[in-house]
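re: that chain from earlier
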Amino acid sequence: MTTHMEIPHSPADLSPGWLTKALQYGQAIGTGAVSEFECSPLEAGEGLYGQIFRLKLAYDPPELDVPETIIAKFSSSNPDMRQRPNTKASYEREVRFYQEAAQESPLPVPACYYADVDMESGWHILLLEDLAPARSGSRTRGCSRNDARIAIHQIARFHAHWWESPRLYEFKWLSGMEIPGDAELAHFREQLWSAFLRKVGTKLPDEVIKIGEMLGEYKGRITQHLFAQKPQTLIHADYQLENMMFGATEEEKFFVVDWQFVKRGCGIWDVAYFLSQNLAPEDRKVTEMSILHDYLRILDDYGVQNYSFDDAVYDYRLSLIHRFGALITTIAALPFTEEQIRMHVDVLLPRIISALLDHDCHLLLHSGLRI
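^ sequence. v structure.
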């Protein structure tokens, strides 16, 4: 889904002619042409990894069944961010996902009208279906128990489709999560953990402190287990409410967006991420085990075998520990706005702590693991 057209860096580089060629290439329009467009930013225009805008299109001559609005995703305007290897890789993953994997996946995603990436410069472009008036989620607000079930039922079908598929190893742009080496683990123990404690500024439960102190020893083995040894599938790896769109009624579609972090890995990792950080603890406690049973039932319905409930719960507990390690790194290392600090420290951290305690994850580490 690429041509040899120049990749625009921002809406200022777009033109009616460029949009016409791109939409015709993606078969979103026929003989008509974009005559003019209006642009408005989403997420204040610039997120951490890029710029996102809604384009309102006009056509001449008019054409039926063409998109009146689309979403355009550009690379970051910050050259330091754009040139980081991890950032370039995230751009490539999302572009290639839409080009090579999205059409055969059962999880609803927005239609992609055009996608291109230049790995040397770090510039990329995505023209996507505008899902409005579907409502986006909010981690801060959390979601209903019913929305949680919808999210897990949908990701279960997605995981089942890709479960141990040879295609996972044919995608050159796809990998598992990098296994941390000795230097990275030492940095976690000696720098990130102490920086996290300074920023949190509150007393953590003793059990959670023990987990943090032991993560430097076990983080590599847990990552190896979840992203190299367990049955592998395609995971979203950022399966949270801001990346979900819900229809106005239960009959309307549910969509998942933002595929920059898609990976090979243990499917239960997506489940643990979602349930532990997107549901209020009281809602998670009531629904968690029944939703895990639903997840496994759907896997079984789609032909996945030899993954027991005991295996799933064990991997779920390890995934909670792994997610806690990721949150430690995020809080310790990244600069945040005050709103982002409140979300990570005051909302997400208490939720993951509650899940760690409910599942006695400190005892899992004290037992020495069975991986």
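The longest helix spans residues 309-333.
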